[in-house]
Design brief:
- The chain has 181 residues and is mainly alpha-helical.
- Helices cover 55% and strands 9% of the residues.
- It has a three-stranded antiparallel beta sheet with strand order 1-3-2.
- Strand 2 and strand 3 form a beta hairpin.
Amino acid sequence: MPNDFSELPFLLVRLTHAFRAFADATLMEAGLADSIRPGMGAIYYALLEADGCAVKHLVDTLRIPNGTLTGLLDSMEKSGLIQRLPDPNDGRAWQVFLTPQAKALRPRMQQRHERVLGVLQEGFTAEESLKLREWLSRVLENMGGYVETSRSGVQDSAAIRTDGRKKRPANASALRVRPAR
């Protein structure tokens, strides 16, 4: 009898592709496709909460690898959505600010976000939505543990939790889920 998880990798790939198409469609529907691309929304909302923060703050908050974040910030800057200025307190760091143009997108961004959540939660009870988030977070933790173990080449017994699951490694940041607000 096949493992109940045997289709999971294929479903995750399909989910990734479907979500990208869904994100593109909802951006188009909201009239944001010329300004915002998938991946930028999380940065936008993080900057609404902490405008003028350091790039490192965004890396830590969003758990996006620095290289990926830099590429998204470059695109946002070229689109006139952000401005990066040297941090007056740290000559090596940059602060990131939303421009007035970006701030003007807030109503459409919020409307789109609510639409996305509505579609994603359709057919789920509140309890099921929370469980799904928990399970997806666990899958991300599992993959992060595997990636870290693969990079080190050694199975570290300290990376195993008392319940037998792998601990989330400190530098598998791309595989972590942002805490719920």
